[in-house]
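ok trying again, last paste got cut off:
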Amino acid sequence: MATLDEPGQGGGTDVLDRELEKLLEDRQLDDGDHERFSHYVPKDKILESALTGKPVRALCGKKWTPGRDPEKFPVCPECKKIYERLRDA
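nice, full thing came through this time. structure:
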């Protein structure tokens, strides 16, 4: 007799583990100070997000779906530091 925990049985804790992994992967610093800043994201990713609604990931790691005017917020210091290092390389 198979139990729900046995691999390959299509359910049980395997499914819960995969769902938990996905939730943890999707959740990336979306709360807190990150909301008070504008973030650096490649322009093509911003356009793709506008067309598809898919979230983007900033240089600092914040993941979100853009929807506000970035001109109204100061630049994220972490994004700025990473961008300057990339530009100088």
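cool. Residues 13-26 form the longest helix (14 residues). The two ends are 60 Å apart (CA to CA).
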